[in-house]
């Protein structure tokens, strides 16, 4: 994967946001670039955008499985539903922060703990770390999917116990900013409005 800023994106450009498990795409979102500068990469994921994910044997999205399972489960394409999301990816950080909007009104923040993203033509890629943080508008918060983080310790393609501790420590650093009420939890972008001329983004045809 390319890690340097070899590929710069421009506002209004459609790019794929891909999550990997081993060499396999586990899920992908079609997004529109809002900004790409020294402050980070900002993406817009509107309701109705293309969304791909691995379909588990239970008919639901495959979340926690072996690398082999992600390689054999079918990759299906659906639409992102119910909420639209503004995503901020700080440079080099092991997390992104999401602003959720329902009916054009800010609903809540979501901190997605993940590897620092890499760039490719028309796409970024990362590895999801399972553990997340849900933040309400009053800045009260809670961990999400702690069991998934613990369950995957030692699995090939996931993380060791020491790496799991580092994932949680990354979350605690974000919580410290949350407690202080500083950016990105200071009200910035809670009134975000997308460009009305932006199309609903689509993923490239499956290969």
Please provide a written account of the structure.
With 207 residues, this protein is α+β, with helices and mostly antiparallel strands. It has one domain: FomD-like (FomD barrel-like fold), CATH 2.40.380. It has helices at residues 67-72, 146-151, 161-180, and strands at residues 14-21, 24-37, 40-45, 50-54, 75-79, 84-89, 95-102, 105-114, 118-120, 123-126, 128-135, 141-144. A hairpin with a 5-residue loop joins strand 6 (84-89) and strand 7. The mean pLDDT is 94.
The termini sit apart by: 19 Å
The helix content, as a percent range, equals 10-25%
What spatial form do the alpha-carbon principal axes imply? globular
Count of spatially separate domains: 1
Set down the secondary structure blueprint.
Elements (H helix, E strand, L loop, with lengths): L13 E8 L2 E14 L2 E6 L4 E5 L12 H6 L2 E5 L4 E6 L5 E8 L2 E10 L3 E3 L2 E4 L1 E8 L5 E4 L1 H6 L9 H20 L27
Parallel strand pairs: 1-10
Antiparallel strand pairs: 1-2, 2-3, 2-4, 3-6, 4-5, 6-7, 7-8, 8-11, 9-10, 11-12
Characteristic terms for this protein:
207 residues, alpha+beta, FomD barrel-like fold, twelve-stranded mixed beta sheet, 15% helix, 39% strand
Short description, anyone?
The protein is an alpha+beta fold. It has helices spanning 67-72, 146-151, 161-180; strands spanning 14-21, 24-37, 40-45, 50-54, 75-79, 84-89, 95-102, 105-114, 118-120, 123-126, 128-135, 141-144.
